[in-house]
Amino acid sequence: MDKIPILKIGHFLMVAIQVDLYDRLALNLESDLVQAVSKTGARGVLIDISAVSIVDSFMGRILGNIAGMSKILDAETVIVGMQPAVAITLVELGLPLKGVQTALNVEKGMELLQQKIQVTEEEEPEE
Amino acid sequence: MIVLSSDNIRIAKELDMVLFRNRLKEYAVKIGMGLVNQTKLITAASELSRNMLRYAGEGTALIEIVNGQRQNGVRVTFSDKGPGISNIEQAMKDGFSTGKSLGLGLPGAKRLVSEFDIKSTVGKGTTITITKWKNG
Amino acid sequence: MKLDTAKILQKRKKQILELWMKNQLVDFSLREDLMSNEELTVQSEELVDVLLQALSDVNLDDIHSIALTPVHEALEGISISRAKQGYSPRETGTFVFSLKDALLSILQQEIKNDPVQLLEESLKISKLIDSLGIVTFETFIKGREEVILRQTDEIAEISTPVIRVWDGVVAMPIIGTLDSARTQVVMESLLQEIVDTSSNIAILDISGVPAVDSLVAQHLIKTVSATRLMGAECIISGIRPEIAQTIVHLGIDLSGIITKATLASALRHAYSLLQLEVRKSAVK
């Protein structure tokens, strides 16, 4: 069974989806990620989809679920690297990915997460 | 419309969808379809093949390269022997779903392709044909 | 005895060509500006060659015979190249139909003793050339359509330039009507440029769009949504007062979109989003 590796970087979890996602794999990713957020107490989740060429409504729903579930566990989710063709298709499909934050690339995604966490938690000591 | 080449793929499990999407991509690339239209076509096909798997258990997807409207296109026909759709009009509405999905499958897929045709008989099965023109 | 028209014509090939050339050269529609007489002779000779060659293999009654394929091919080539060179349909048509006169007058000289046979053979030749004429027109139109399609592609390409106005800000002025095909091209090049330059802000300037109806507005909203999905912001600028009027009259909701009257104010907004400031430098 394929598995998508989840990396922990500081306060964040990072996932780079590099394979063709089929539904089972996406569902596994969802539960693995939520488990990992809970276990590590991560404050942010970064999902890189720059290698993903197809995002259909199922995959969109999974991304939304991950963001929603992480939010309940007090972690922000940012999706980065969406390809132009995928963005155009999602708009046409009628899937706005509500509640999901996006950024152009990993670097900008990290910046966004850092900002978000600073805003919500000023009292945390600087690292 | 003239059929130039074709391929029939059985979809009975999730991994078949991956194979089917790859094969469909080959066909779209073969006629020189641009990346955005390729993505739209494959996304629509992905929605429809999942529907077929979910509601009918299995079915077939026939991929064809067709010529019409002065350009080539890719046509995909999904046929299953599932329960059928009792109210097509309702099924084509955004946000309607009998399953636990977003209800974007059918209407969303229709918006992504150039031509969309659905025929369904309750108890007999459903046939959905989509066509995406190279520049459509 | 059955007369073999093909043989007769084959024998008199040289005269047919001469006669045809003479017909063409006296015609007022001759376009020496587009093609020299030498070139025209070569072209005509080629066509007479294939035609007479085909006639010897084919029954003249059957104008759909595959033996005529090389003739059709030669004609299609000539016709398409003429369409691209800018010949009018009449000029191209005359080219083919003047061959009929030449063929018929040769036939007349050869079969002058038998009016019935002459009529019969003339009708066949006439029918054949007519069908060739139709082929000519069909391909002529096809040639023209190719020109139009190429131009359409070109217009779509050149009419959507993306400009890097600042580090992290790209702008795209849209000129002309925004239909769904065009919107896709606009979105595609704008989003690609955003990725390539990793820009956070895109400005879509619609000063050059003649009218905004609900369909165009929908296309604009889609472009903005797609830009946001990628993780960038999209500002729409260049909204003329009359466009603002129609938007409100039509009840189009643009409230989720940042709109600005001019490109300058859009740029100012972009600066503030990027926390940049433009100041006059101190005079030394």
UniProtKB/TrEMBL annotation, chain A:
Domain STAS span(s) in chain numbering: 1-113
Transmembrane segments annotated in the record for this chain: none
PANTHER family in UniProt: RSBT ANTAGONIST PROTEIN RSBS, RSBT ANTAGONIST PROTEIN RSBS-RELATED
PROSITE patterns, sorted: STAS
Name the record gives this protein: STAS domain-containing protein
Pfam family, one: STAS
Natural source organism: Chitinophaga rhizophila
InterPro entries from the UniProt entry: Bact_StressResp_Reg, STAS_dom, STAS_dom_sf
CDD domains per UniProt: STAS_RsbR_RsbS_like
Automatic annotation (TrEMBL), chain B:
Entries under SUPFAM superfamilies matching the protein: ATPase domain of HSP90 chaperone/DNA topoisomerase II/histidine kinase
Pfam families: HATPase_c
Domain of life of the native organism: Bacteria
Coiled-coil positions: none
InterPro entries with a match to the protein in the record: HATPase_C_sf, HATPase_dom
Domain Histidine kinase/HSP90-like ATPase: 36-136
Name the UniProt record assigns to this protein: Anti-sigma regulatory factor
Record organism: Chitinophaga rhizophila
TrEMBL record, chain C:
InterPro entries, per database record: Bact_StressResp_Reg, RsbRD_N_dom, STAS_dom, STAS_dom_sf
Keywords of this entry: Phosphoprotein
Domain of life: Bacteria
Keyword Phosphoprotein: yes
SUPFAM superfamilies assigned to the protein according to its UniProt record, in alphabetical order: SpoIIaa-like (SSF52091)
Signal peptide: none
Sequence ranges assigned to domain STAS in this UniProt record: 159-270
One Pfam family per UniProt: RsbRD_N
Family matches, as PROSITE patterns: STAS (PS50801)
The protein, known as: STAS domain-containing protein
Source organism: Chitinophaga rhizophila
